[in-house]
Amino acid sequence: GGPRPRPGQEVSVKVLGTLEDGGLVERDPRLTFVPGHGDVVQALELGVPTMQPGEVSFFLAACRYAYGRPGREPDVPPEAPLLFEVTLLEVRDGPDPQPLPPAARLRLGSQRRERGNFHFARGDFAAALRSYRLALHALDGPATAPPGPEEEEELQEQRVKCLNNCAAAELKLGRAEEALAACEAALRISPDNGRALLRRGQLLAEKGRDAEAALVLKRALELDPASKVIHTELSRLAKRQSPPSS
């Protein structure tokens, strides 16, 4: 009884997940998450919002709604469908962002970035992007106390990683402008980040902004002189700019 979860609300569920042969792969007496945040498999993301508190449901999930074609070592084989028994224990309004110690912000940000990597590896780039943005939100959230120098440095490193990952996901989704914006945000934090420089140079070249692209790629080459990728990109630009022979 009671209303189904609304967007943004937090849920707690009891979950059992098994393979078709009955092998147990998931057991959590109280799993708490916000549907839509990408922290659980798609079967739960999509299924739990259809439930009412106290209801018990069974979801037979094709592999794309579970752990995808790769599966999950060591217990979920590739392309394995899963059967979930889910009990919706509680629905409540989503928690307001609470001030967290810097160490907790780092831990939460890392967890969400790793969840994004999980989605990215399985080709769900929209879910990956959502997780990376949630990771940035955690890293930028309110703190109980100012971070120390080492913690601030680690927070900045994590932000740059998330922004680079956002750029990669945006590219997979065909959104070059958004990818370029993510690269530039990463470079505002870390001007000599090689990954962001290379991707920004490639994106500028694709937009025909060759002079800007060449400057960015030359800076990337100064930082990594042995990079074949950067040499190739600069060579392609040089050929494009040189006049055709008579």
From TrEMBL:
Catalysed reactions listed for this entry: [protein]-peptidylproline (omega=180) = [protein]-peptidylproline (omega=0)
EC code: 5.2.1.8
Domain of life: Eukaryota
Enzyme class: isomerase
Keyword Coiled coil (UniProt): yes
GO biological processes: negative regulation of apoptotic process
Extent of the TPR repeats: 194-227
Keyword hit for Transmembrane: no
Organism: Furnarius figulus
GO cellular component, one term: cytosol
Gene3D superfamilies the UniProt entry points to: 3.10.50.40, Tetratricopeptide repeat domain
Domain PPIase FKBP-type: 8-92
Coiled-coil intervals, chain numbering: 152-186
UniProtKB keywords: Coiled coil, Isomerase, Repeat, Rotamase, TPR repeat
Name under which the protein is recorded: peptidylprolyl isomerase
One GO MF term attached to the UniProt entry: protein folding chaperone
